[in-house]
Amino acid sequence: MPATLFITGATSGFGEACARRFAEAGWSLVITGRRAERLQALAEELSAKTAVLPLVVDVRDRAAMEAAVAGLPERFARLRGLINNAGLALGTDPAPSCDLDDWDTMVDTNIKGLMYSTRLLLSRLIAYGRGAGIVNLGSVAGHWPYPGSHVYGATKAFVRQFSLNLRNDLVGTGVRVTDLEPGMCESEFSLVRFDGDQARYDATYAGAEPIQPADIAETVYWILNQPAHININSLELMPVSQTWAGFAVDRTRG
Ligand code: NDP
Ligand code: 8X3
After folding, report:
1. Which residue range forms the structural domain that includes residue 110?
2. What ligand has the least distance to the C-alpha of 187?
3. For residue 149, which atom of ligand 2 is closest to its CA?
4. How far is the CA of 76 from the centre of ligand 1 (A)?
5. Residue 152 appears among annotated catalytic residues
6. Total domains in the fold of the chain
7. CATH number of the domain that 202 lies in?
8. Which helix (H) or strand (E) holds 5?
9. Cα distance between residue 114 and residue 15, in whole Å
10. What does pLDDT average to in each consecutive run of 10 residues of the chain (254 residues)?
11. Which end of the chain is less enclosed by CB atoms within 10 A, N or C?
């Protein structure tokens, strides 16, 4: 039975690009997301190359995630990889004026959704053993503070520490864990964050030569195909055009 890769959030961006990259290499795929039509279309396209199971599920819905994992057909049960990719940022307003519902959504998706898929699939990854791996989508926002990042960055700090902690609990199982921490990448991520504002999306990437989802997919493929005795603990990448800002100073203090 071929090895299977489980990808959360495969209807766009990194998840979709990873599905394409791993399908090219012949891995069986379980792809998930909420947008059924997109997921179905991707599954149909990739099924010319490999076995693909589309699962329409919201990672925030614990019961639905439990049912989805419990119902995995035997054909897709030999799990070698999990890409915890589903996630989002909502808004860039400063903390005092942003929407508390957006904070809930980011925590529920980026933290709790990732917890659910990890916990529910761990036993299958452990059963695969040596060579299996989890790639969690963290972010530069998980350790570099910037204005408007508040809860989004904090959820990614969770992803980083959770990933590192998991490694300790998985010692001896052969299962690897990586926190992948990209900087600016061009994807629907910014359309979601800016509530569909196309002009703001365009301005974000204009002239910056951002990382593309296919670049991330290539990186994930490299991580999960390292020799079985190597664990990439964390990997941060940025476009060459992006660096850090200096400290901000309040000059109204007299
Ligand atoms: P996209 O918006 O293109 O893709 C996000 C994916 O997550 C979609 O497939 C979406 O599917 C899925 N998703 C969102 N919410 C849920 C949910 N509740 N249940 C199931 N699936 C969900 O963004 P990216 O590909 O750029 O981002 C992927 C990950 O990478 C995210 O975790 C993001 O935080 C992280 N990241 C992104 C960076 C960037 O600059 N783009 C940089 C660093 C990290 P659907 O809507 O169909 O459910
Ligand atoms: C996404 C990258 O810089 O927009 O995680 O926070 S950033």
Report:
1. 4-237
2. 1
3. 6
4. 23
5. yes
6. 1
7. 3.40.50.720
8. strand 4-7
9. 14
10. 93 98 98 98 98 98 98 96 98 97 98 99 98 98 97 98 98 98 98 98 98 99 98 98 94 93
11. C
